[in-house]
Amino acid sequence: MVGSLLASAVSDPKCAVPDMVAYDEAQAILAAYMQNIPLLTTEFVSISQASGRVLAEDIRAVMPRPEADISAMDGYAFRCADMEKAGSVGLPLAGQIAAGDASPSLEKGVACSILTGARIPAGADCVVAQERTSITDGHVHLLEQNVRNGLNIRRSGEEFCKGDMLLEHGLKLDWRHLSILAHQGKEQVSVYKHPKVCVVANGAEFGATATDCRTELNTQLLAAMLQSEGVRVTRYVCGSDSMEALHKLLHQCAQEADILITTGGISVGQTDHVLHVLCQMGAKCLFRRVKMRPGKPMTVMQLGQKMVFCLPGNPGAAAICAQLFIIPFLRGFAGEKQEKKTSMPIEGQSSFAYVAAADTTSFLPVYSTENKGKNLITLVRSVGASDILCLTQATGLVRVSAGTSLQVGDMCQMIPFTA
Ligand SMILES: Nc1nc2c(c(=O)[nH]1)N[C@H]1C(S)=C(S)[C@@H](COP(=O)(O)OP(=O)(O)OC[C@H]3O[C@@H](n4cnc5c(N)ncnc54)[C@H](O)[C@@H]3O)O[C@H]1N2
Ligand code: MOO
User: Fold this and answer.
1) What ipTM is given for this predicted complex?
2) Measuring from each residue's beta carbon to the nearest atom of ligand 1, which residues come in under 6 Å?
3) In the 8-state DSSP scheme, what is residue 160?
4) What mean pLDDT is predicted for residues 35-62?
């Protein structure tokens, strides 16, 4: 059976395996593919559950903010002209309005006490803060003469008007947006559904019967990385070198998930079956191997409408490839608009030198520190693509493009890791 699967995969014309591509080309292939895939479907959630979700509707103001003209101070509201006319006699006090009170009209020639947030009574055209006044014999007197029309009045709509665009679809909602939704009286909001991802680790070394048993790390690492992006992750381990077992597991995952991720078994070893099994299942290869370090075996396939990201087994390489390829893809797939990125690169001066190979783009684990307003980017010691400790010391990656070099003191950009 193994032999026949392998033979049919390799001879399958759909499974033409392209040559290794440059890093930027791989990203361009993925971006082009992104344009044509259907986004996730949407659902309504209550706004208390909406933080972290991607908005699937535009929110236009159905009411302005402030809703009415309101006082910005605790003090006294009156007509400027009345106060000017009253001079040192001041204006008699008539009533008090607090936030939440209905606001009657202000009679001519009087002042009323007003609290912050209360509606300005019709007729009043200014508010003076109470500490800038004195009260004698039930009259308000000004301590300073600099009153003017509109003083301390927050006008209706000065923050936004009815009909204004407040939040656009594709926005990942967080605490900053929820008060807007609440203000607009939204109890429920339309968001894109959580993507479902299956992560499948490969390797006989993770099976219960292995003589030289190893601890499987990648599904832990990737599940945590993706869960903090709002993805529902199911983890599987194929702990044998059986193509049939892998075929069965990937078939099951294709039924369950929107996106599949495999780790390991994608290089050129005799037990690296992922490519062959996916080809056998009818998957098309978008790119096979990338001129990058780490992550050379990185491969992306399309199984029906579903994407399959085949990550290298080395945990450091798997993590870096996931950061560079999977996270941006998932954000787009989940409806997030790319131009509203939150994790922008951090620019700083390199404290190290590095020469990238002529045909290979390198991604180096680094951290950034700040000194007198300048960022310094420092390389973290790493012994290779299997490293996991270096990731805990690094806060991001520096790219050194194929055939280029970085000198000490050069400006460079750190791509921060996702949370
Ligand atoms: N002749 C060649 N050999 C290799 C090449 C090559 O181009 N020619 N590429 C090397 C590179 S680069 C990488 S990266 C690895 C990746 O190979 P695979 O993706 O097939 O990964 P495996 O061989 O299955 O595993 C590699 C390594 O990682 C460990 N591993 C795998 N999965 C996990 C996991 N889930 N948790 C923890 N550790 C894992 C595995 O035990 C191996 O030690 O291939 C090179 N070889
Ligand atoms: O490319 Mo591999 O990912 O270096 O070990």
Assistant:
1) 0.97
2) 201-203, 205, 214, 216-218, 263-269, 272, 296-297, 312-315, 317, 385-386
3) B
4) 94
